[in-house]
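Help needed: design a sequence for this.
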């Protein structure tokens, strides 16, 4: 690639990045696009099996506190991640890191799990998307900045937890995540290896200064996210619950009695005999 074409690609890249909107998902359509993106990207990597709904979704997505974040361009979701707030149902990663999470929960500490992180890999193949890996990570970091500010300033949490494939460990080390536990096999991603990690939201700013991570500090601590990015979060209606968890999947059908009772408690004004019929 010559210098002119390289310059043109960089200009096109900058233009593309400026069109991306990062915010909370606000509609059923946006949620479905996000869940579908995760499904197709996970399927490519062997992290999930084929299913008729073509969505990656679980009982935790039914909880009202669950928040899905999206990067969107012209109504197309090109990246997403979902925040699961700790609850009586626990967190998805309790399946393999329960003991470790219980340690974090001591002293009534508040934690969440970031999961269902995916970006459209087709963006990074041709044309504008012939980007360096660093450009792709810059794009993902914007989404993570949104989640970081939501967890830290809106929810006022103590810890962000996550499970990552070992090949992504260095990225999260750079973001100052600490190891939560040893390498394990995770059935939720089709038996792929996973490492539990956590970010201490009470100490991360000082740690960033201490390690002289100027670029990271500038991106995550020099300014706060525009609060309008967090407005308009979708509140699942009875129709939404039926659509995602009864019609498109068997999640409510396969839920344990305890899980289903807790979901009903969360939506105490809803008529579940109409939702699960």
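Sure. Designed sequence:
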């Amino acid at each position: 690639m010559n210098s002119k074409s390289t310059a043109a690609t960089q200009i096109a890249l900058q233009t593309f990045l400026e069109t991306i909107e990062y915010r909370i998902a606000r509609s059923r359509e946006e949620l479905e696009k996000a869940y579908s993106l995760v499904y197709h990207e996970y399927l490519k990597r062997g992290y999930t099996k084929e299913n008729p709904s073509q969505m990656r979704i679980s009982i935790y997505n039914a909880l009202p506190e669950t928040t899905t974040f999206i990067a969107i361009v012209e109504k197309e979701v090109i990246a997403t991640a979902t925040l699961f707030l700790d609850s009586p149902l626990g967190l998805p990663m309790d399946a393999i890191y329960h003991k470790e999470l219980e340690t974090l929960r001591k002293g009534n500490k508040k934690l969440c799990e970031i999961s269902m992180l995916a970006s459209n890999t087709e963006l990074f193949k041709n044309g504008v998307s012939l980007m360096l890996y660093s450009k792709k990570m810059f794009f993902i970091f914007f989404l993570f900045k949104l989640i970081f500010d939501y967890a830290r300033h809106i929810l006022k949490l103590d810890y962000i937890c996550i499970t990552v494939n070992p090949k992504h460990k260095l990225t999260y080390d750079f973001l100052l995540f600490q190891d939560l536990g040893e390498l394990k096999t995770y059935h939720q991603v089709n038996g792929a290896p996973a490492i539990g990690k956590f970010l201490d939201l009470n100490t991360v700013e000082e740690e960033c200064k201490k390690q002289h991570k100027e670029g990271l500090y500038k991106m995550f601590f020099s300014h706060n996210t525009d609060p309008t990015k967090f407005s308009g979060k979708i509140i699942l209606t009875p129709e939404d619950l039926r659509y995602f968890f009864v019609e498109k999947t068997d999640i409510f059908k396969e839920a344990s009695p305890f899980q289903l009772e807790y979901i009903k408690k969360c939506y105490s004004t809803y008529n579940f005999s109409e939702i699960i019929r």
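The beta strands are 21-24, 67-73, 76-85, 111-119, 159-164, 178-179, 184-186, 192-200.
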